[in-house]
Amino acid sequence: MLRFTIILLFILASFQSLKGQQNILYSQYMFDKMLLNPAYAGSSKWMVGSIKNRMQLVNLDGSPTTNLLTFQAPVQAKNIGFGVKIIHDKIAVTNSLTATGIFTYHIGFGGGKLSFGLEGGIVNNSFNYDVLNRVDNIDPAIPIGKESVLLPEISTGVFFRTPSMYVGASLYHLFNSQSKTSFLGNNDLYSLNRCFYGMGGYTFDVSKKFSLEPSFLTKYARGAPFQLDLNLTAFLYNRFSVGTSFRTGDAVILLFKVDVTKNFKVFYSYDITLSNLAKYSSGSHEIGISYGIELLPPPQQKVMHPRYYF
User: Fold this and answer.
1) Is residue 24 situated within a structural domain?
2) pTM of the model
3) Is the pLDDT of residue 184 over 60?
4) 20 touches 91 (CB < 8 A)
């Protein structure tokens, strides 16, 4: 009964303008900044494809599960880049499929690279209320059947980096898209509310084989509390990365990345839940792999530090 109550609270929370988990939580964004800032796509000399899976609040029925495929590449002679993101997110009765394309433009600035990005695509959200475990089969407050909405998605970002630091800002759901849903009446909408991300970091080279990078991420969306991530990542022998993060009001995170080869990388993170949900969940897992192909840059282009390639 207690577990059913928790699941019901998740579902009721998603009914508030039917927002659901529209801003997906990631723990490994410092290894793939394109996840939260489109301007990062194609900003290095590597063509990179990645696959990731996130299982959030494991052991809690109806908890979020996210699968995503990303691809990015530069067109270095033109100072532009492009990327693709396909994301499937499931939480309780809601399935969300997002497909977007990214275009970026990069210029030399202040001893580093300044990048601008525009991301656009579609979001399809479907709701299957027939999978609910009902106590009262005739409760009119709980919908029945299936429904879906299709919304446009437009986002933008700016990113600046040098060999030792980076800073960026992005705005998602730029046009605050809305769609009516029939089961709640004409006055109720599904909306993609604007979400802001700010990030930055600085790398200290302790020695030729050891570096430390403190970094941060800020997140704000209407209807949700402001959130701050504080991160510390250690780079060992340019092959191993070990880190930890503290996410306000949510979790402490342990992160690992291994460069199996120069081209192939494996990621893993574990979120230790700090909220009251820790009583019912064993935390969150995120795992991913990336494969990159190094492209020869134009002769006049400066080479950035390899830790920023992918």
Assistant:
1) no
2) 0.83
3) no
4) yes
Distance of alpha carbon 271 from alpha carbon 91, whole angstroms: 18
Contact 170, 37 (CB under 8 A): yes
What CATH number should be reported for the domain holding residue 45?
Answer: 2.40.160.40
Distance CA 141, CA 187 (A): 16
pLDDT digits (tens, 9 = 90+) for 216-240: 999 998 778 899 999 999 999 889 9
Which residue's entry shows tokens 């402490």? 252
Q: How would you classify the pairing of strands 195-202 and 210-221?
A: antiparallel
Place of tokens 């900044």: 33
In a domain, 303, yes or no: no
How far apart are alpha carbons 233 and 223 in whole angstroms? Answer: 31
Structure tokens at 142: 């709980």
* 249 neighbors 229 (Cβ within 8 angstroms): no
| More confident call, 13 vs 169 | 169
Query: For 303, which DSSP code?
Result: P
Could you tell me what percent of the chain has a pLDDT over 90?
55
Structure tokens at 180: 């009516």
Please tell me the total count of domains within the chain. 1
Q: How far apart are the first and last CA of the chain?
A: 46
Query: What is the domain extent for residue 243?
Result: 2-14+31-295
| 186, 180 Cβ separation under 8 angstroms | yes
